[in-house]
Amino acid sequence: MLSAKNVAITFNAGTPIETRALRGLSLEIPAGQFVTVIGSNGAGKSTFLNAVSGDISIDSGTIAIDGRDVTREPVWTRAERVARVFQDPMAGTCEDLTIEENLALATCRGKRRGFGRSVKPAMRELFRERVAVLGLGLENRLTDRIGLLSGGQRQAVSLLMAALQPSRILLLDEHTAALDPRTAQFVLDLTARIVAESKLTTMMVTHSMRQALDVGDRTVMLHQGKVVLDVSGEERKGLDVPDLLQMFERVRGEKLSDDALLLG
Amino acid sequence: MSIYSLWGALEIGLIFGLVALGVLISFRILRFPDLTVDGSFPLGGATAATLISVGVDPFLSTLVATFAGALAGALTGWLHVRLKIMDLLASILMMIALYSINLRIMGAPNIPLIMEPTVFTVLQPSSLQDFVFRPLMLLVLVIVVKLALDWYFSTEIGLAMRATGSNPRMARSQGVATGNRILAGMAISNALCALAGALFAQSQGGADISMGIGTIVIGLAAVIVGESIMPSRRLVIATVAVIVGAVLYRLFIALALNADFIGLKAQDLNLVTAVLVTIALVIPLLKQRLRGKGGR
Hints:
The complex is a heterodimer.
Chain A: E1 2-11, E2 19-29, E3 34-38, H1 45-53, E4 60-65, E5 68-69, H2 75-78, E6 82-85, H3 99-107, H4 121-132, H5 151-164, E7 169-173, H6 181-198, E8 202-205, H7 209-214, E9 218-223, E10 226-232, H8 233-237, H9 241-263
Parallel strand pairs in A: 3-8, 3-9, 6-7, 7-8
Antiparallel strand pairs in A: 1-2, 1-4, 4-5, 9-10
Chain B: H1 3-29, H2 37-53, H3 58-81, H4 87-106, E1 110-112, H5 119-123, H6 130-154, H7 156-166, H8 168-173, H9 178-203, E2 206-208, H10 215-229, H11 235-258, H12 269-295
Protein backbone atom coordinates (compact mmCIF):
# COMPACT_ATOMS: atom_id res chain seq x y z
CA MET A 1 0.00 0.00 0.00
CA LEU A 2 1.28 3.41 -1.00
CA SER A 3 0.46 6.81 0.39
CA ALA A 4 2.00 9.89 -1.27
CA LYS A 5 1.06 13.30 0.08
CA ASN A 6 1.81 16.68 -1.55
CA VAL A 7 4.96 15.42 -3.23
CA ALA A 8 6.90 18.22 -4.91
CA ILE A 9 10.12 18.03 -6.88
CA THR A 10 11.83 20.86 -8.74
CA PHE A 11 14.82 20.17 -10.96
CA ASN A 12 17.54 22.82 -11.37
CA ALA A 13 15.82 25.14 -8.91
CA GLY A 14 16.84 28.76 -9.24
CA THR A 15 18.28 28.41 -12.74
CA PRO A 16 16.81 29.37 -16.12
CA ILE A 17 16.10 25.70 -16.85
CA GLU A 18 14.12 25.22 -13.63
CA THR A 19 11.52 22.46 -14.04
CA ARG A 20 8.76 21.85 -11.56
CA ALA A 21 8.36 18.14 -12.24
CA LEU A 22 5.92 17.34 -9.42
CA ARG A 23 3.69 20.04 -7.91
CA GLY A 24 2.05 18.67 -4.81
CA LEU A 25 1.07 15.27 -6.14
CA SER A 26 -1.05 13.13 -3.81
CA LEU A 27 -2.00 9.52 -4.45
CA GLU A 28 -3.27 6.68 -2.26
CA ILE A 29 -3.05 3.12 -3.52
CA PRO A 30 -4.74 0.54 -1.27
CA ALA A 31 -3.24 -2.93 -0.85
CA GLY A 32 -3.80 -5.27 -3.79
CA GLN A 33 -4.77 -2.58 -6.30
CA PHE A 34 -3.23 -2.44 -9.78
CA VAL A 35 -2.98 1.19 -10.91
CA THR A 36 -1.97 2.31 -14.39
CA VAL A 37 -0.49 5.78 -14.75
CA ILE A 38 -0.66 7.77 -17.98
CA GLY A 39 0.21 11.31 -19.04
CA SER A 40 2.06 13.18 -21.76
CA ASN A 41 5.83 13.63 -21.87
CA GLY A 42 6.99 15.67 -18.90
CA ALA A 43 3.80 15.05 -16.93
CA GLY A 44 5.91 13.61 -14.09
CA LYS A 45 5.11 9.89 -14.43
CA SER A 46 8.66 8.60 -14.29
CA THR A 47 9.69 11.25 -11.78
CA PHE A 48 6.93 10.10 -9.43
CA LEU A 49 7.95 6.48 -9.85
CA ASN A 50 11.57 7.37 -9.09
CA ALA A 51 10.43 9.32 -6.05
CA VAL A 52 8.60 6.25 -4.72
CA SER A 53 11.60 3.98 -5.34
CA GLY A 54 13.95 6.52 -3.77
CA ASP A 55 16.07 7.18 -6.86
CA ILE A 56 15.11 10.86 -6.65
CA SER A 57 14.75 12.59 -3.29
CA ILE A 58 11.72 14.84 -2.96
CA ASP A 59 11.74 18.52 -1.96
CA SER A 60 8.56 18.43 0.13
CA GLY A 61 5.70 16.12 1.01
CA THR A 62 5.78 12.57 2.36
CA ILE A 63 5.83 9.07 0.93
CA ALA A 64 4.75 6.12 3.07
CA ILE A 65 4.76 2.50 2.01
CA ASP A 66 2.59 0.15 4.04
CA GLY A 67 2.41 2.68 6.85
CA ARG A 68 6.14 3.32 7.13
CA ASP A 69 7.36 6.79 6.22
CA VAL A 70 10.17 6.19 3.71
CA THR A 71 10.58 9.82 2.57
CA ARG A 72 14.19 10.05 3.79
CA GLU A 73 15.20 6.45 3.12
CA PRO A 74 17.71 5.50 0.40
CA VAL A 75 16.82 3.11 -2.43
CA TRP A 76 18.44 0.03 -0.88
CA THR A 77 16.50 0.16 2.37
CA ARG A 78 13.23 0.82 0.54
CA ALA A 79 14.01 -2.22 -1.61
CA GLU A 80 12.66 -4.41 1.19
CA ARG A 81 9.21 -3.04 0.28
CA VAL A 82 9.61 -1.93 -3.31
CA ALA A 83 10.09 -4.21 -6.33
CA ARG A 84 10.84 -2.63 -9.65
CA VAL A 85 11.11 -3.28 -13.38
CA PHE A 86 12.86 -0.62 -15.44
CA GLN A 87 11.95 0.66 -18.90
CA ASP A 88 15.33 -0.29 -20.34
CA PRO A 89 15.60 -4.11 -20.49
CA MET A 90 19.37 -3.73 -19.93
CA ALA A 91 18.83 -1.76 -16.70
CA GLY A 92 16.94 -4.34 -14.64
CA THR A 93 19.47 -7.15 -14.89
CA CYS A 94 23.25 -7.44 -14.52
CA GLU A 95 24.60 -8.45 -17.90
CA ASP A 96 27.88 -9.79 -16.49
CA LEU A 97 26.09 -12.19 -14.16
CA THR A 98 24.41 -15.45 -15.13
CA ILE A 99 20.63 -15.89 -15.16
CA GLU A 100 20.73 -17.78 -11.87
CA GLU A 101 23.03 -15.21 -10.26
CA ASN A 102 20.60 -12.44 -11.23
CA LEU A 103 17.73 -14.41 -9.72
CA ALA A 104 19.84 -15.10 -6.61
CA LEU A 105 20.48 -11.39 -6.26
CA ALA A 106 16.73 -10.77 -6.29
CA THR A 107 16.19 -13.58 -3.77
CA CYS A 108 18.19 -11.51 -1.27
CA ARG A 109 16.12 -8.34 -1.77
CA GLY A 110 14.99 -7.12 1.64
CA LYS A 111 17.21 -9.59 3.48
CA ARG A 112 20.61 -9.32 5.12
CA ARG A 113 23.32 -10.59 2.81
CA GLY A 114 25.86 -12.83 4.47
CA PHE A 115 28.55 -15.35 3.62
CA GLY A 116 26.22 -18.12 2.57
CA ARG A 117 26.49 -19.42 -0.99
CA SER A 118 24.57 -17.09 -3.28
CA VAL A 119 23.17 -19.87 -5.49
CA LYS A 120 22.17 -22.92 -3.46
CA PRO A 121 21.03 -26.18 -5.09
CA ALA A 122 17.49 -25.84 -3.65
CA MET A 123 17.26 -22.33 -5.14
CA ARG A 124 18.34 -23.64 -8.51
CA GLU A 125 15.32 -25.98 -8.53
CA LEU A 126 12.99 -23.09 -7.72
CA PHE A 127 14.58 -20.92 -10.43
CA ARG A 128 14.21 -23.70 -12.98
CA GLU A 129 10.51 -24.01 -12.13
CA ARG A 130 9.86 -20.26 -12.28
CA VAL A 131 11.79 -19.70 -15.49
CA ALA A 132 10.10 -22.70 -17.17
CA VAL A 133 6.75 -20.89 -16.81
CA LEU A 134 8.01 -18.30 -19.31
CA GLY A 135 8.14 -20.96 -22.02
CA LEU A 136 11.34 -19.46 -23.43
CA GLY A 137 13.57 -22.49 -22.79
CA LEU A 138 15.63 -20.51 -20.29
CA GLU A 139 15.36 -23.29 -17.67
CA ASN A 140 18.26 -25.05 -19.41
CA ARG A 141 20.35 -21.89 -19.67
CA LEU A 142 20.51 -20.83 -16.02
CA THR A 143 24.30 -20.61 -16.08
CA ASP A 144 24.37 -18.47 -19.25
CA ARG A 145 25.29 -14.83 -18.90
CA ILE A 146 22.12 -12.77 -18.99
CA GLY A 147 23.82 -10.42 -21.46
CA LEU A 148 23.34 -13.16 -24.07
CA LEU A 149 19.53 -12.87 -23.83
CA SER A 150 17.32 -10.62 -25.95
CA GLY A 151 15.66 -7.53 -24.51
CA GLY A 152 12.29 -9.26 -24.20
CA GLN A 153 13.79 -12.28 -22.47
CA ARG A 154 15.66 -10.06 -20.05
CA GLN A 155 12.52 -8.08 -19.30
CA ALA A 156 10.63 -11.31 -18.60
CA VAL A 157 13.39 -12.39 -16.20
CA SER A 158 13.25 -8.93 -14.54
CA LEU A 159 9.56 -9.49 -13.88
CA LEU A 160 10.24 -12.89 -12.32
CA MET A 161 12.95 -11.28 -10.19
CA ALA A 162 10.53 -8.62 -8.97
CA ALA A 163 8.10 -11.33 -7.85
CA LEU A 164 10.66 -13.63 -6.18
CA GLN A 165 10.40 -11.84 -2.84
CA PRO A 166 7.29 -10.30 -1.32
CA SER A 167 6.92 -6.56 -1.88
CA ARG A 168 4.46 -3.92 -0.71
CA ILE A 169 4.46 -2.24 -4.08
CA LEU A 170 5.61 -3.25 -7.55
CA LEU A 171 6.76 -0.39 -9.79
CA LEU A 172 6.67 -0.89 -13.55
CA ASP A 173 8.19 1.96 -15.54
CA GLU A 174 6.97 1.63 -19.16
CA HIS A 175 8.50 -1.80 -19.02
CA THR A 176 7.14 -2.84 -22.41
CA ALA A 177 8.01 0.38 -24.27
CA ALA A 178 11.40 -0.79 -25.56
CA LEU A 179 10.08 -4.12 -26.90
CA ASP A 180 8.61 -5.12 -30.27
CA PRO A 181 4.78 -5.37 -30.26
CA ARG A 182 4.62 -9.17 -29.95
CA THR A 183 7.18 -9.34 -27.14
CA ALA A 184 5.50 -6.36 -25.46
CA GLN A 185 2.20 -8.25 -25.43
CA PHE A 186 3.93 -11.33 -24.03
CA VAL A 187 5.53 -9.33 -21.22
CA LEU A 188 2.23 -7.53 -20.52
CA ASP A 189 0.32 -10.82 -20.24
CA LEU A 190 3.03 -12.15 -17.98
CA THR A 191 2.71 -9.01 -15.84
CA ALA A 192 -1.03 -9.43 -15.47
CA ARG A 193 -0.56 -13.09 -14.54
CA ILE A 194 2.17 -12.48 -11.94
CA VAL A 195 0.31 -9.55 -10.38
CA ALA A 196 -2.90 -11.57 -10.15
CA GLU A 197 -1.19 -14.70 -8.78
CA SER A 198 0.61 -12.88 -5.99
CA LYS A 199 -2.07 -10.18 -5.51
CA LEU A 200 0.64 -7.51 -5.80
CA THR A 201 -0.03 -3.83 -5.19
CA THR A 202 1.18 -2.41 -8.47
CA MET A 203 1.80 0.93 -10.13
CA MET A 204 2.45 0.73 -13.86
CA VAL A 205 3.48 3.74 -15.91
CA THR A 206 2.61 3.42 -19.56
CA HIS A 207 2.57 5.47 -22.74
CA SER A 208 -0.26 3.50 -24.26
CA MET A 209 -3.81 4.54 -23.35
CA ARG A 210 -5.05 1.19 -24.65
CA GLN A 211 -2.75 -0.62 -22.22
CA ALA A 212 -3.72 1.69 -19.37
CA LEU A 213 -7.39 0.76 -19.75
CA ASP A 214 -6.90 -2.94 -20.56
CA VAL A 215 -4.78 -3.84 -17.54
CA GLY A 216 -5.32 -3.15 -13.86
CA ASP A 217 -8.19 -1.84 -11.71
CA ARG A 218 -7.65 1.90 -11.78
CA THR A 219 -6.20 4.51 -14.11
CA VAL A 220 -4.61 7.76 -13.04
CA MET A 221 -3.65 10.57 -15.40
CA LEU A 222 -0.88 12.99 -14.52
CA HIS A 223 -0.48 16.44 -16.00
CA GLN A 224 2.10 19.05 -15.02
CA GLY A 225 3.07 17.13 -11.93
CA LYS A 226 -0.41 16.55 -10.52
CA VAL A 227 -3.15 13.95 -10.65
CA VAL A 228 -5.81 15.34 -13.01
CA LEU A 229 -7.91 12.25 -13.61
CA ASP A 230 -8.57 9.21 -11.46
CA VAL A 231 -11.01 6.56 -12.69
CA SER A 232 -11.81 3.10 -11.40
CA GLY A 233 -14.65 0.59 -11.10
CA GLU A 234 -17.73 0.90 -13.33
CA GLU A 235 -16.79 4.33 -14.64
CA ARG A 236 -13.49 2.95 -15.94
CA LYS A 237 -15.09 -0.14 -17.52
CA GLY A 238 -17.19 2.06 -19.78
CA LEU A 239 -14.23 4.11 -20.96
CA ASP A 240 -12.51 3.76 -24.32
CA VAL A 241 -9.37 5.38 -25.69
CA PRO A 242 -11.24 8.25 -27.44
CA ASP A 243 -13.02 9.09 -24.13
CA LEU A 244 -9.69 9.18 -22.39
CA LEU A 245 -8.21 11.39 -25.12
CA GLN A 246 -11.17 13.72 -24.85
CA MET A 247 -10.77 13.93 -21.08
CA PHE A 248 -7.10 14.63 -21.57
CA GLU A 249 -7.80 17.43 -24.06
CA ARG A 250 -10.36 18.93 -21.71
CA VAL A 251 -7.92 18.88 -18.79
CA ARG A 252 -5.27 20.48 -20.95
CA GLY A 253 -7.71 23.04 -22.24
CA GLU A 254 -8.69 24.04 -18.72
CA LYS A 255 -5.05 24.45 -17.84
CA LEU A 256 -4.59 26.65 -20.89
CA SER A 257 -7.53 28.82 -20.03
CA ASP A 258 -6.18 29.09 -16.49
CA ASP A 259 -2.91 30.37 -17.85
CA ALA A 260 -4.75 32.68 -20.24
CA LEU A 261 -6.61 34.17 -17.28
CA LEU A 262 -3.37 34.66 -15.43
CA LEU A 263 -1.70 36.34 -18.37
CA GLY A 264 -4.73 38.45 -19.17
CA MET B 1 68.91 -16.65 -19.27
CA SER B 2 70.18 -18.44 -16.17
CA ILE B 3 68.04 -20.78 -14.10
CA TYR B 4 68.60 -18.37 -11.24
CA SER B 5 66.97 -15.45 -13.03
CA LEU B 6 64.13 -17.74 -14.15
CA TRP B 7 63.26 -18.57 -10.53
CA GLY B 8 63.67 -14.90 -9.71
CA ALA B 9 61.19 -13.92 -12.44
CA LEU B 10 58.74 -16.51 -11.15
CA GLU B 11 59.10 -15.15 -7.62
CA ILE B 12 58.43 -11.53 -8.56
CA GLY B 13 55.73 -12.65 -11.02
CA LEU B 14 53.85 -14.43 -8.25
CA ILE B 15 54.14 -11.40 -5.94
CA PHE B 16 52.65 -9.29 -8.70
CA GLY B 17 50.01 -11.98 -9.09
CA LEU B 18 48.61 -10.62 -5.80
CA VAL B 19 48.65 -7.08 -7.24
CA ALA B 20 46.90 -8.42 -10.35
CA LEU B 21 44.15 -9.99 -8.21
CA GLY B 22 43.72 -6.63 -6.45
CA VAL B 23 43.55 -4.78 -9.76
CA LEU B 24 41.03 -7.35 -11.04
CA ILE B 25 38.75 -6.44 -8.12
CA SER B 26 39.03 -2.66 -8.53
CA PHE B 27 39.22 -2.24 -12.32
CA ARG B 28 37.20 -5.21 -13.53
CA ILE B 29 34.71 -6.16 -10.80
CA LEU B 30 34.01 -2.72 -9.29
CA ARG B 31 34.99 -0.81 -12.47
CA PHE B 32 36.82 1.64 -10.22
CA PRO B 33 39.96 3.02 -11.93
CA ASP B 34 42.13 2.87 -8.82
CA LEU B 35 45.66 4.30 -8.79
CA THR B 36 45.92 3.97 -4.98
CA VAL B 37 47.89 0.80 -5.80
CA ASP B 38 51.03 2.87 -6.53
CA GLY B 39 50.83 4.04 -2.92
CA SER B 40 49.47 0.95 -1.17
CA PHE B 41 52.15 -1.38 -2.59
CA PRO B 42 55.01 0.66 -1.06
CA LEU B 43 52.82 1.25 2.02
CA GLY B 44 52.87 -2.51 2.58
CA GLY B 45 56.61 -2.62 1.98
CA ALA B 46 57.32 0.34 4.23
CA THR B 47 55.13 -0.91 7.08
CA ALA B 48 56.50 -4.45 7.02
CA ALA B 49 60.16 -3.38 6.67
CA THR B 50 59.89 -0.78 9.44
CA LEU B 51 58.24 -3.20 11.86
CA ILE B 52 60.67 -6.03 11.08
CA SER B 53 63.67 -3.72 11.48
CA VAL B 54 62.58 -2.83 15.02
CA GLY B 55 62.23 -6.50 15.90
CA VAL B 56 58.53 -7.27 15.33
CA ASP B 57 57.67 -10.79 14.17
CA PRO B 58 57.73 -10.86 10.32
CA PHE B 59 54.32 -12.56 10.07
CA LEU B 60 52.70 -10.00 12.36
CA SER B 61 54.47 -7.22 10.41
CA THR B 62 53.10 -8.57 7.14
CA LEU B 63 49.61 -8.79 8.63
CA VAL B 64 49.77 -5.19 9.89
CA ALA B 65 51.02 -4.08 6.46
CA THR B 66 48.05 -5.83 4.82
CA PHE B 67 45.61 -4.02 7.13
CA ALA B 68 47.31 -0.71 6.40
CA GLY B 69 46.62 -1.34 2.71
CA ALA B 70 42.98 -2.18 3.46
CA LEU B 71 42.63 1.11 5.32
CA ALA B 72 44.15 3.07 2.42
CA GLY B 73 41.78 1.41 -0.05
CA ALA B 74 38.75 2.03 2.14
CA LEU B 75 39.77 5.70 2.41
CA THR B 76 39.92 6.04 -1.37
CA GLY B 77 36.47 4.45 -1.54
CA TRP B 78 35.23 6.82 1.15
CA LEU B 79 36.52 9.89 -0.74
CA HIS B 80 34.53 8.73 -3.75
CA VAL B 81 31.37 7.38 -2.11
CA ARG B 82 30.79 9.86 0.72
CA LEU B 83 32.57 12.99 -0.50
CA LYS B 84 31.51 12.40 -4.14
CA ILE B 85 35.01 12.96 -5.53
CA MET B 86 35.50 11.44 -8.99
CA ASP B 87 36.87 7.88 -8.64
CA LEU B 88 40.14 8.39 -10.55
CA LEU B 89 40.86 11.67 -8.78
CA ALA B 90 40.08 10.19 -5.34
CA SER B 91 42.63 7.46 -5.97
CA ILE B 92 45.27 9.94 -7.18
CA LEU B 93 44.76 12.03 -4.04
CA MET B 94 45.23 8.93 -1.91
CA MET B 95 48.29 7.91 -3.92
CA ILE B 96 50.15 11.19 -3.39
CA ALA B 97 49.09 11.32 0.28
CA LEU B 98 50.57 7.85 0.74
CA TYR B 99 53.93 9.03 -0.64
CA SER B 100 54.33 11.31 2.37
CA ILE B 101 52.85 8.74 4.74
CA ASN B 102 55.30 6.09 3.53
CA LEU B 103 58.24 8.45 4.11
CA ARG B 104 56.91 9.14 7.61
CA ILE B 105 56.53 5.44 8.36
CA MET B 106 60.07 4.62 7.26
CA GLY B 107 61.65 7.83 8.55
CA ALA B 108 64.10 7.50 5.65
CA PRO B 109 63.82 6.96 1.87
CA ASN B 110 64.65 3.26 2.33
CA ILE B 111 64.94 0.51 4.95
CA PRO B 112 67.21 -2.41 4.17
CA LEU B 113 66.39 -5.91 5.41
CA ILE B 114 69.63 -7.81 5.14
CA MET B 115 70.15 -9.89 8.28
CA GLU B 116 66.66 -9.51 9.72
CA PRO B 117 64.29 -12.50 9.72
CA THR B 118 61.58 -12.47 7.03
CA VAL B 119 58.54 -14.67 6.41
CA PHE B 120 60.77 -16.49 3.92
CA THR B 121 63.82 -17.06 6.12
CA VAL B 122 61.70 -18.18 9.09
CA LEU B 123 60.01 -20.95 7.07
CA GLN B 124 63.05 -21.79 4.94
CA PRO B 125 63.78 -25.56 5.10
CA SER B 126 67.45 -26.53 4.92
CA SER B 127 66.79 -29.01 2.11
CA LEU B 128 65.78 -26.33 -0.43
CA GLN B 129 67.79 -23.42 -1.77
CA ASP B 130 66.26 -20.08 -0.89
CA PHE B 131 65.75 -18.93 -4.50
CA VAL B 132 63.71 -22.09 -5.12
CA PHE B 133 61.84 -22.05 -1.83
CA ARG B 134 60.56 -18.46 -2.09
CA PRO B 135 58.65 -18.94 -5.38
CA LEU B 136 57.19 -22.23 -4.13
CA MET B 137 55.97 -20.62 -0.92
CA LEU B 138 54.53 -17.71 -2.88
CA LEU B 139 52.80 -20.11 -5.25
CA VAL B 140 51.00 -21.74 -2.33
CA LEU B 141 50.04 -18.33 -0.91
CA VAL B 142 48.75 -17.01 -4.25
CA ILE B 143 46.65 -20.15 -4.77
CA VAL B 144 45.17 -19.80 -1.28
CA VAL B 145 44.30 -16.13 -1.97
CA LYS B 146 42.78 -17.04 -5.33
CA LEU B 147 40.57 -19.73 -3.74
CA ALA B 148 39.55 -17.35 -0.95
CA LEU B 149 38.50 -14.74 -3.51
CA ASP B 150 36.59 -17.34 -5.56
CA TRP B 151 34.73 -18.32 -2.41
CA TYR B 152 34.02 -14.71 -1.45
CA PHE B 153 32.57 -13.84 -4.83
CA SER B 154 30.29 -16.88 -4.72
CA THR B 155 28.67 -15.71 -1.47
CA GLU B 156 25.60 -13.47 -1.22
CA ILE B 157 27.69 -10.49 -0.20
CA GLY B 158 30.29 -11.17 -2.91
CA LEU B 159 27.57 -11.39 -5.53
CA ALA B 160 26.26 -8.05 -4.29
CA MET B 161 29.73 -6.56 -4.87
CA ARG B 162 29.84 -7.88 -8.44
CA ALA B 163 26.38 -6.45 -9.11
CA THR B 164 27.51 -3.10 -7.70
CA GLY B 165 30.28 -2.88 -10.29
CA SER B 166 28.20 -4.19 -13.16
CA ASN B 167 24.93 -2.27 -12.67
CA PRO B 168 24.84 -0.08 -9.55
CA ARG B 169 21.29 1.20 -10.09
CA MET B 170 19.91 -2.30 -10.38
CA ALA B 171 21.99 -3.41 -7.37
CA ARG B 172 20.47 -0.63 -5.23
CA SER B 173 16.97 -1.55 -6.35
CA GLN B 174 17.71 -5.10 -5.17
CA GLY B 175 18.60 -3.76 -1.73
CA VAL B 176 22.39 -3.61 -2.07
CA ALA B 177 24.08 -0.79 -0.13
CA THR B 178 26.38 -0.04 -3.08
CA GLY B 179 28.51 2.53 -1.22
CA ASN B 180 29.50 -0.03 1.42
CA ARG B 181 30.26 -2.65 -1.20
CA ILE B 182 32.62 -0.22 -2.98
CA LEU B 183 34.38 0.53 0.32
CA ALA B 184 34.77 -3.19 1.07
CA GLY B 185 36.00 -4.02 -2.43
CA MET B 186 38.56 -1.22 -2.42
CA ALA B 187 39.77 -2.37 1.00
CA ILE B 188 40.25 -5.96 -0.20
CA SER B 189 41.94 -4.82 -3.41
CA ASN B 190 44.47 -2.58 -1.67
CA ALA B 191 45.03 -5.08 1.15
CA LEU B 192 46.25 -7.53 -1.52
CA CYS B 193 48.52 -4.86 -3.03
CA ALA B 194 49.98 -4.00 0.38
CA LEU B 195 50.50 -7.70 1.10
CA ALA B 196 52.38 -7.93 -2.20
CA GLY B 197 54.47 -4.89 -1.21
CA ALA B 198 55.30 -6.41 2.18
CA LEU B 199 56.43 -9.67 0.53
CA PHE B 200 58.34 -7.77 -2.15
CA ALA B 201 60.31 -5.86 0.47
CA GLN B 202 61.13 -9.11 2.30
CA SER B 203 62.17 -10.94 -0.84
CA GLN B 204 64.20 -8.10 -2.37
CA GLY B 205 66.10 -7.08 0.77
CA GLY B 206 64.27 -3.95 1.83
CA ALA B 207 61.68 -1.26 1.18
CA ASP B 208 62.28 1.84 -0.89
CA ILE B 209 60.12 4.92 -1.35
CA SER B 210 60.24 4.51 -5.14
CA MET B 211 59.31 0.80 -5.15
CA GLY B 212 55.67 1.65 -5.95
CA ILE B 213 56.26 3.54 -9.18
CA GLY B 214 54.40 1.84 -12.02
CA THR B 215 52.82 -0.88 -9.85
CA ILE B 216 49.40 -0.14 -11.30
CA VAL B 217 50.71 -0.47 -14.85
CA ILE B 218 52.28 -3.84 -14.04
CA GLY B 219 49.05 -4.97 -12.35
CA LEU B 220 46.97 -3.87 -15.32
CA ALA B 221 49.48 -5.46 -17.71
CA ALA B 222 49.06 -8.74 -15.84
CA VAL B 223 45.26 -8.49 -16.04
CA ILE B 224 45.30 -7.64 -19.74
CA VAL B 225 47.88 -10.31 -20.67
CA GLY B 226 45.93 -12.86 -18.61
CA GLU B 227 42.62 -11.94 -20.20
CA SER B 228 44.00 -12.13 -23.73
CA ILE B 229 45.50 -15.61 -23.27
CA MET B 230 42.63 -17.05 -21.19
CA PRO B 231 39.53 -15.10 -22.23
CA SER B 232 36.56 -16.00 -20.06
CA ARG B 233 33.75 -14.23 -18.29
CA ARG B 234 33.87 -16.74 -15.47
CA LEU B 235 35.49 -15.37 -12.35
CA VAL B 236 37.19 -18.62 -11.27
CA ILE B 237 39.04 -18.58 -14.59
CA ALA B 238 39.73 -14.84 -14.52
CA THR B 239 41.46 -15.21 -11.13
CA VAL B 240 43.81 -17.86 -12.62
CA ALA B 241 44.30 -15.85 -15.80
CA VAL B 242 45.57 -12.70 -14.05
CA ILE B 243 48.08 -14.72 -11.98
CA VAL B 244 49.34 -16.47 -15.12
CA GLY B 245 49.43 -13.04 -16.77
CA ALA B 246 51.57 -11.61 -13.98
CA VAL B 247 54.06 -14.49 -14.13
CA LEU B 248 54.26 -14.45 -17.94
CA TYR B 249 54.74 -10.71 -17.91
CA ARG B 250 57.71 -11.04 -15.54
CA LEU B 251 59.17 -13.80 -17.71
CA PHE B 252 58.87 -11.61 -20.82
CA ILE B 253 60.61 -8.81 -18.99
CA ALA B 254 63.37 -11.12 -17.76
CA LEU B 255 63.83 -12.48 -21.28
CA ALA B 256 63.91 -9.04 -22.83
CA LEU B 257 66.41 -7.71 -20.32
CA ASN B 258 68.60 -10.83 -20.42
CA ALA B 259 68.84 -11.18 -24.17
CA ASP B 260 72.10 -9.33 -24.78
CA PHE B 261 71.56 -9.10 -28.52
CA ILE B 262 68.55 -6.78 -28.01
CA GLY B 263 70.73 -4.46 -25.96
CA LEU B 264 68.13 -3.58 -23.30
CA LYS B 265 69.25 -2.64 -19.80
CA ALA B 266 67.50 -2.55 -16.42
CA GLN B 267 66.62 1.12 -16.84
CA ASP B 268 64.51 0.21 -19.89
CA LEU B 269 62.06 -1.75 -17.68
CA ASN B 270 59.22 0.76 -17.79
CA LEU B 271 59.58 1.28 -21.54
CA VAL B 272 59.41 -2.49 -22.08
CA THR B 273 56.32 -2.58 -19.84
CA ALA B 274 54.59 0.12 -21.87
CA VAL B 275 55.39 -1.68 -25.14
CA LEU B 276 54.18 -5.04 -23.78
CA VAL B 277 50.90 -3.56 -22.52
CA THR B 278 50.36 -1.88 -25.88
CA ILE B 279 50.92 -5.18 -27.68
CA ALA B 280 48.56 -7.04 -25.33
CA LEU B 281 45.89 -4.37 -25.90
CA VAL B 282 46.25 -4.50 -29.68
CA ILE B 283 46.20 -8.31 -30.02
CA PRO B 284 42.41 -8.70 -29.54
CA LEU B 285 41.85 -6.00 -32.19
CA LEU B 286 44.19 -7.74 -34.64
CA LYS B 287 42.49 -11.09 -33.98
CA GLN B 288 39.14 -9.50 -34.77
CA ARG B 289 40.47 -8.00 -38.02
CA LEU B 290 41.98 -11.30 -39.12
CA ARG B 291 38.75 -13.15 -38.36
CA GLY B 292 36.76 -10.53 -40.23
CA LYS B 293 38.94 -11.01 -43.34
CA GLY B 294 38.79 -14.80 -43.07
CA GLY B 295 35.00 -14.69 -43.12
CA ARG B 296 34.75 -12.67 -46.32
